[in-house]
Amino acid sequence: MEKPQRKESGYRQYNGDAIDRLFFIQQAKELGFSLKEIAELLSIKSDASTVCSDVKHLAEDKLSDVEVFKKKTGFYIQRLEGNIPNEGVLDHEGCCIR
C-alpha cells in the first residue's frame, strides 16, 4: 500500500482504494485470518489470473481451523463446568479443580 499523503493538520489522507483495502484487512482479521493469510488473499485479489476456487480454498482451510478450535474450546468449557466447586462445599477436597 502506498504511503498516504498528509493534510496540513498532519492527518493521513487515504484514497478510496486504500480505504477499501483497509476495510478488507479489518474484516479478514475479524474472521480470524492471520496477517500472512490476509497478504495471500490480497495477492490473489490483485492477480488477474486467479479464480474463485483459489479464495474458496483459503476460506475452507480457515473454516476447518476454526472448527478444530471450536471443538477444543468446547472440550475445555465442559471440563471447567464440570469441575467448578459447589458453593455449599466447605472442605478443601470439594474445592479443588480436577
List the topology elements.
Blueprint: E1 5-6, E2 12-13, H1 16-30, H2 35-46, H3 52-83
Antiparallel strand pairs: 1-2
- Total of helices: 3
Q: Largest sheet at a glance?
A: 2 strands, antiparallel
Give the beta-strand count.
2
Counting structural domains, the number is: 2
User: For the CA atoms, what is the radius of gyration?
Assistant: 23 Å
- Sequence of strands across the biggest β-sheet: 1-2
Q: What portion of the residues fall into strands of 2 or more residues?
A: under 5%
Which percent range fits the helix content?
A: 55-70%
Give the ordered list of helices and strands.
EEHHH
User: What is the overall pLDDT average?
Assistant: 82
As residue ranges, the low-confidence spans are none
Give the overall silhouette. flat
Question: What is the CA-CA span between the terminal residues?
Answer: 51 Å
Structural class assignment:
mainly alpha
Write a concise keyword list for the protein shown above.
2 strands; two-stranded antiparallel ribbon; mainly alpha; flat; 4% strand; 98 residues
Structure description:
The protein has 3 helices and 2 strands, in the order ββααα. It has 98 residues and is mainly alpha-helical. It folds into 2 domains: 1-50, no CATH class; 51-98, no CATH class. The protein has a two-stranded antiparallel ribbon. The longest helix has 32 residues, at 52-83. The chain is flat. The mean pLDDT is 82.
